[in-house]
Amino acid sequence: MPVDVVLFGAHPDDVEWGAGGIALLLREAGISFAIVDLTNGEMGSRGTLVERRIEAASAAELLGATREALHLPDCGLVDSPENRRLVAGVIRRQRPRLVIAPFWEDRHPDHAAAGLMVRNSQLYCALKKLDDPNPPHKPGAFLFYPLHKFERLTFVVDTTKVFPLKLDLLRVHSSQFSKTAEEFGVIAQGIGDYLFGLESRDRYFGSLAGVRFGEALIADQPVRLAGLGDILSLLGG
User: Fold this and answer.
1) Which domain covers residue 79, as residue numbers?
2) Residues 6+ away with beta carbon under 8 Å from 7
3) Which CATH number do you get for residue 137?
4) Residue 97: φ, ψ to 5°
5) Nearest to 52 by CA among 67, 34, 32, 33
6) How many domains does one find in the chain?
7) Contact (CB, 8 A) for 8 and 38
8) What's the pTM?
9) 144-172 per-position pLDDT tens digit
10) In terms of DSSP H, where are the helices of the chain?
């Protein structure tokens, strides 16, 4: 069934971590969307494969979204022609107007590879001769959410009103976020609490746009605007 937006993540909690507020705003607006996890997160230091599958399904239910996994190898994602075709197959089947994925510059190789796979799938989405059961489909835009690198931002989405719900959404992934990093026995980047780090990042993004909390998106090419009305819409007018 077609949806308006498809959000890709390398691991089962990436969409919630990087674009959970955007997903909550989509739900609030009644915009249909699907989440696609490229891996099952089976190599993560915290949580079993069964736990992570249950958590991912529960988070999707909370969001009112469909969710699927492509079962590619965790810690082994690569931007290859085969994987671009796989991603394009999802997009041709779901037929979204907008695709959102991790930014392809990131310290985690899987996040970077996921962004490149989605970015480079655009050609395969439009190929008429691709061996795919679904016809070509060209989304209106591909946008990318940064997880650890905060440069080159194109948009900041005001997520202030849904930020407390975003924290609740992340807590659904209890194997990942029920404890501080110190309690997990991990030396984290920063102060040692994953959700504190998330709040700090989203506060930073929000400060760039003059709001309390925000999530950033990056365009890899100019985004077409039909006219001043579209600009006013972006500004909340």
Assistant:
1) 5-234
2) 15, 19, 22, 23, 33, 34, 35, 36, 100, 101
3) 3.40.50.10320
4) -85, -25
5) 67
6) 1
7) yes
8) 0.91
9) 999 988 888 999 999 999 999 999 999 89
10) 14-29, 49-63, 81-94, 109-120, 122-126, 163-172, 174-177, 181-184, 194-208, 228-234
